[in-house]
Amino acid sequence: MNQPSVNSVPAFFREDRLTRFWVLQLAGWTCLSIVSYFSLNLWYDQPDAAYIGHNVVQSLLGIALSWPLRYVYRRVWDDSLIVRIVYISIAVLIFSGLWSLFRLAFFQWMTGTSGLWADFGGWLFPSIFIFMCWTALYHGFKYYRLVGQEHSALLQMESAKNLEASRAARAETLARDAQLAMLRYQLNPHFLFNTLNAVQSLVATRRNAHATGMISALSEFLRYSLYTNSGEFVSVEDEIAAIKLYLEIEKIRFGDRLVVTINVSQDVRSQQLPSMLLQPLVENAIKYGVARSAKGGTLHVDAYSDATHLCIDVVDSGAEMKAREAIGEPGVGLSNIRQRLEVCYSQDYDLTLHRLPEGGVRAGVRVPLQRIETVN
């Protein structure tokens, strides 16, 4: 996975600091010369080369004198705000004073004028303003760069955090799929063993037609089981179709002793649930509620919804009380269902098993509604 670009600082501010400083230094003092030319030389009608040359010289002096300020400000950068203000104020006064002194001296020498020292204050105050602007720009650019670096660092941390979360989610998904696969594979051998025993009994009693029908139904049911992924959610309609394949096998075993009714509400046919979830419930009902009864029994499968959940009940007519004493001890099938529901829905599910007053047991599953999206 490629990490997104997190460098939010413009390329100029990522250049070498010394190079960046000198580019800004030359650009700033050059702009001062241009402004001085238009505001002084042209305004006061001083087009002579000496006056223009003085503009260039004072900018060169400004470059030379402001250069050490960079090291002064870097030296006190980590000090407290009050200390920095004191040092910056002193530095601005000293260097602006020196700049005023030198540029006034050069002005008198280059233009041949004299007697200007009495007006030194008039030269000093603009110099202080210039060096204050220089100081403000220096700190502004430095703060901008630091803020950009901090923002980039935060984005890098966020990107790394998202990448780690993505990896964790993928690992969790793989672990979940592996757990579901393990649980699903517990069912197939269990069911297959019971069915092959029934086929063996049919062959042993020379009921070959019934054995052939059971093998055919078994192949169709196993096709559904094997071609459905372990973690896949299927519609109620598909799951009921698989249950009907399974019940075809059981009807061959029990004949008229097994009566099945299936009711599926129209509004839940497209609801989702984990594949092969109902087969252990139906198998358990037949095993404990029909097979142990001398006269057989009935099996009802009802699928419906309440306000928020899909509900499926598997109800058998029940066997003699003595045959149903083991109801409180769920076998591999029910334990498997509970584990699969826990993996898929965490705590938002119900798996109940109730003995009915009139006889029999109702096994109920209740899971959140999750309708399959259809593409027209």
From TrEMBL:
Note whether rRNA-binding occurs among the keywords. Answer: no
One of the Pfam families matching this protein, by short name: His_kinase
An example of a GO molecular function for this protein is: kinase activity
Gene3D superfamilies with a match to the protein in the record: Histidine kinase-like ATPase, C-terminal domain
Q: At the top level of its lineage, which domain of life is listed?
A: Bacteria
Q: Which residues cross the membrane?
A: 21-44, 50-69, 81-102, 122-141
Keywords noted in UniProt: Kinase, Membrane, Transferase, Transmembrane, Transmembrane helix
| Occurrences of domain Signal transduction histidine kinase internal region (ranges) | 178-258
InterPro entries the record matches? Bact_2-comp_sensor_kinase, HATPase_C_sf, Sig_transdc_His_kin_internal
What this protein is called in its record is Histidine kinase
Instruction: Give the source species.
Output: Congregibacter brevis
Species classification: Bacteria, Pseudomonadati, Pseudomonadota, Gammaproteobacteria, Cellvibrionales
